[in-house]
Amino acid sequence: MTLLLGRQARLRWLHLIIGGALLMPCFLVGTVVVGMYNRDGNAFDSLPLQLTAFAYALPMAAVTGLFPLARPLSVAAVRALCGVPAERLADGPARTRQARVRTAGWLTLHLALGAVISGMTLALTPFAVTVMTLPFLSSVRNSAVLDLPRALTRPWALALAPFAGLGMLVALAGCAAAAGALLARRAPLLLGPTPDDRLAAAERRAADLAVRNRLARELHDSVGHALSAVTLQAGAARRVLDSDPEFVREALAAIEETTRRTVGELDSVLGLLRQEDEGEDGLTGPTLDALDGLLARCGVPVSYVARGDPGTVPAAVSRAAYRIVQEGLSNAARHGGRAAPVELRIAVCDEELAITLDNPLSGRTPVVRPGGGRGLRGIAERAVLLGGRAEAGPHDDDRWRLTARLPLHIPAQEKR
């Protein structure tokens, strides 16, 4: 009985009745078409004419399934009423030809079965109830509307009438359950993801992976900058070890401070990998407020000019800006040398944060990390993820310029 009248069966029955209601406008148009060629007959009084109008209605229903929004509406109804797992159905409008054809096939099947079950429900239910009341109501038995055959008024027929009416209702419930089960089985095939949908899902997963790769960029920028600064300080200290002990002490102090700070940042990023102590947007790390300390121990002379208040920049943008400046200084140290002056300009405007970093090109072979560097690509990725842009390249023949523009107002999903 649960299969026929359980909650799932009732919901599927409702889904079928909705399909029948949706087909009704097309069916009425079909009756008009039939009436144009059969002026002597009424489509509502003739079963053959009704079937003909039904045949005209189905192609019109199929055409409506070709519209892109037909699929999400159908999917929502199937998820709510047919008990089909959500992961087996496609999301979003049908954009491709294959998806639209499948949706049209689904809509045709749904509306056709729905019309049949709806018609049976409307016609058979009151008839079955009437049959069940024949033994108890003489007014029903003697009704001119029913005009019962004489055999059905005999005592044995009246005794069987309640069971016959109940059997009709059970048969109706069985037909509705079978039609609902058929729709539930076909829904994943006709409303499920097409190959193009699966490709789009793979692209979304790739985008999610790119967002997670921000943690890898945090490690690269933090540790890479520290190693570059330590290498420069240690190399300079080695060259003047005998002639300038004071400079050697300053270089060793800078190395100590850089490594201590980097260990703290490394612990922070590894904590995120362990899903511990997340910040408000899932990332922690230094912001532009710590820029003075970075400039003091980066190993190259920096001329810094700020326009606006960097302290008003949102945390996610401020962290990205700090990392961009950090990587830019590392590149300047590797390509320009320790003595090459660097010009850093940061401007906080109404809508964006602009970063410009200039340094001379020394012409010497830069210090290259094993395996090559990924700093410029990381800078570009940081900017793009925030909805901004970054560029780097030669400027005025003998200089190198890094520019980045980051929007100050970014969507919540891009902050995470």
TrEMBL record:
InterPro entries cross-referenced by the UniProt entry: HATPase_C_sf, Sensor_HK_TwoCompSys, Sig_transdc_His_kin_sub3_dim/P
Enzyme superclass (EC): transferase
Regions crossing the membrane: 12-37, 49-70, 104-137, 157-184
The entry's keywords: ATP-binding, Kinase, Membrane, Nucleotide-binding, Phosphoprotein, Transferase, Transmembrane, Transmembrane helix, Two-component regulatory system
Catalysis performed (reactions): ATP + protein L-histidine = ADP + protein N-phospho-L-histidine
One Pfam family linked to the record: HisKA_3
Keyword Transmembrane helix: yes
GO molecular function: kinase activity
EC number: 2.7.13.3
Domain Signal transduction histidine kinase subgroup 3 dimerisation and phosphoacceptor stretches: 212-277
Protein name as it appears in the record: histidine kinase
Annotated source species: Streptomyces yanii
